[in-house]
Amino acid sequence: MFSFFKKKPKVEPAPLPETPVAAPATPAALPPAAAPVTAVVAPPTVTPTAAVEVAPTATAETEAEIVAAPVAAEQKRSWLSRLRTGLSKTSSNLTTLFVGAKIDEDLYEELESALLVSDAGVEATHFLLNALKKKVKEDKLTEAPQVKAALRTLLIDLLTPLQKPLVLDQHQPLVMMIAGVNGAGKTTTIGKLAKHLQAHNQSVLLAAGDTFRAAAREQLTIWGERNNVTVIAQESGDPAAVAFDAVHSAQARGINVVMVDTAGRLPTQLHLMDELKKIKRVIGKGMATAPHEVLLVIDGNTGQNALTQVKVFDDALGLTGLVITKLDGTAKGGVLAAIATNRAIPVYFIGVGEQIEDLQPFDATEFVDALLT
Ligand SMILES: Nc1nc2c(ncn2[C@@H]2O[C@H](COP(=O)(O)OP(=O)(O)OP(=O)(O)O)[C@@H](O)[C@H]2O)c(=O)[nH]1
């Protein structure tokens, strides 16, 4: 298995914190990076816009929960089996049509239906069918298993451009902004990623940018306390200010990775899409090169609407990567072909459950084999 993240030599010296443009209220003096982990108590008179920093407290429970990398073979097998189970409907549709089949128009029609039902969309379906017909003709394929093998190769070729590792150690800190519709799995993904990053010796700081839902902020804060991850949160107010504070705090502490959580929103909620653009802009005021990664988390069960989400969020933010969650549910998987054909943004990770090891890097061959076996 390839590694979870790719590491690059640092090319960017740690910049000094810049002068805040619209400086949000900051908490008491930050401890140095190597300081013993102690709670930074929120000022007694917390104004609605005052940032509250919850420093982590290491516990025995925390240590027990951190997953060692690389993933053990047994875990990997169980992960693959969950992916296969999740995609079993599509895989059964795609594989049964080749059983004892003759290579004729009927087969191509059935394949067209199966691909469309899998959420591959019209463009990817037609692209794959045309390429397959060409291959069958050129290579004079006469047996169904040969055609199935040709489809496997075409699918792998189509999806491989989406396979790209998340690169660490290129920026100090690496600032990632995470967006998506409500319930897509943003906060869960951030939690899993934080643990994977810790297992790769990266220190992590989270910005609770979902200021819309108090419960979301509290959830992240409690999670951070339990897992030795500092969380920057705000009683209420401006998510851009929380993100700004988080970037400065990470710079001051020498933290490796900042993840900025954002509230769920629909692509049609234009004012909320504008708010995301503002968060991105303000992060850039905290650190000129940031955010270095803008990730969209997509629920794998969303169907063709996932493509709309990719397009709208990409137009608004310039996405650098995708995370596809819940591929263990009723997801059909074909939407990755639609994304590859229409907006080939790297899929850094896919998720097949709620455990930390259920989030793994996207591997085109692994994924296609789950679809076709
Ligand atoms: N089965 C399954 N459930 C998942 C996966 N990822 C996340 N979930 C569940 O999806 C639900 C929503 O996840 P959250 O992380 O809260 O989603 P969110 O995008 O942060 O939600 P909002 O903050 O409301 O927008 C939770 O119950 C998660 O446990 C996955 O890969 N598989």
From TrEMBL:
InterPro entries, per the entry: AAA+_ATPase, P-loop_NTPase, Signal_recog_particl_SRP54_hlx, SR_rcpt_FtsY, SRP/SRP_N, SRP54_GTPase_dom, SRP54_N_sf
All copies of domain SRP54-type proteins GTP-binding, residue ranges: 346-359
Coiled-coil regions, chain positions: none
The protein's Enzyme Commission number: 3.6.5.4
Pfam family, one: SRP54_N
Subunit and partners: Part of the signal recognition particle protein translocation system, which is composed of SRP and FtsY. SRP is a ribonucleoprotein composed of Ffh and a 4.5S RNA molecule.
Assigned protein family: Belongs to the GTP-binding SRP family. FtsY subfamily.
Protein function: Involved in targeting and insertion of nascent membrane proteins into the cytoplasmic membrane. Acts as a receptor for the complex formed by the signal recognition particle (SRP) and the ribosome-nascent chain (RNC). Interaction with SRP-RNC leads to the transfer of the RNC complex to the Sec translocase for insertion into the membrane, the hydrolysis of GTP by both Ffh and FtsY, and the dissociation of the SRP-FtsY complex into the individual components.
Protein name stated in the entry: Signal recognition particle receptor FtsY
